[in-house]
Amino acid sequence: AQSVTQPDIHITVSEGASLELRCNYSYGATPYLFWYVQSPGQGLQLLLKYFSGDTLVQGIKGFEAEFKRSQSSFNLRKPSVHWSDAAEYFCAVGAGLTGGGNKLTFGTGTQLKVEL
Amino acid sequence: EPEVTQTPSHQVTQMGQEVILRCVPISNHLYFYWYRQILGQKVEFLVSFYNNEISEKSEIFDDQFSVERPDGSNFTLKIRSTKLEDSAMYFCASSLDRGRVETQYFGPGTRLLVL
Fold first, then answer.
1. Judging by beta carbons within 10 Å of its beta carbon (0-12, 13-18, 19+), is residue B85 exposed, middle or buried?
2. Could you tell me whether strands B43-50 and B105-106 are parallel, antiparallel, or unpaired per DSSP bridges?
3. Within an 8 Å CB–CB cutoff, is residue B31 touching chain A?
């Protein structure tokens, strides 16, 4: 069965600093990977997704993520964090059709705090 | 921009009571999902629903749970006899298709507290 690990529960960065949120996955086939963000009182918003092709994917709000098969990782990055980026970030893997169907398996999330 | 909505935002209930959580998916979407997140734990898949029937469910989704699309817009999750361990945030999601990389759009969640 697929699984996702987000090793950092909380991260604090200064506004303007760079950010990297870690995500490691376990899945037997080609993974379909997603990053979602949740602001307080809001739903889960998709930041970006990877399913094939270029291993560096661009998302909304200036975020990008790099798929590294050899490390089973899909880390999320942003070169310069804004105070409005403070939120909880979830990495997820989507199972292929021959496996778990269309469900998403999430990590436990990383809470990002931005210091002004 | 169309969005998934959920009501209520918070619900407090007594153990053993029935609760119904409501969701309005995006209007042209065909696939509907429920996920839950127990405080401090992962977001977990509960069930997916298509064409008025369950297409997949997890081991969490036992006989106490049911889903329904009572009309053309609402999608509901019913818990027949709530237990303390049902306390969680429940997220509804919808997607246009069930493809592997089809984006699931999530609602803001309903926080359920069972006392």
1. exposed
2. unpaired
3. yes
Pick B107's closest partner by Cβ from A43, A49, A96. Answer: A43
Tell me the average pLDDT of chain A.
Answer: 89
Distance CA(A44)–CA(B61), nearest Å, equals 21
Average pLDDT rounded to a whole number, residues B26-45:
90
Residue B11: pLDDT above 90? yes
Q: What residues of chain A lie within 8 A of the CB of B91, using their CB? A: 43-44
DSSP letter, residue B16: T
Higher pLDDT, A70 or A40: A70
Question: In this predicted model, what pLDDT tens digit does every residue of A7-31 receive, in sequence order?
Answer: 999 999 999 999 999 999 998 777 8
Distance between CA atoms of residues B10 and B5, nearest Å: 13
Question: Which pair of structure tokens corresponds to residue B111?
Answer: 């926080």
**What phi-psi label fits residue A62: left (phi over 0), alpha (psi between -120 and 50 degrees) or beta?**
left
pLDDT in tens, B48-93: 888 888 888 899 999 999 999 988 789 999 999 999 999 999 999 9
Q: Which residue has the tokens 């898949």?
A: B45
Q: What is the DSSP string of A45-114?
A: EEEEEESSS-SEEE-GGG-EEEEEGGGTEEEEEESS--GGG-EEEEEEEEPPTTTTTT-EEE---EEEEE
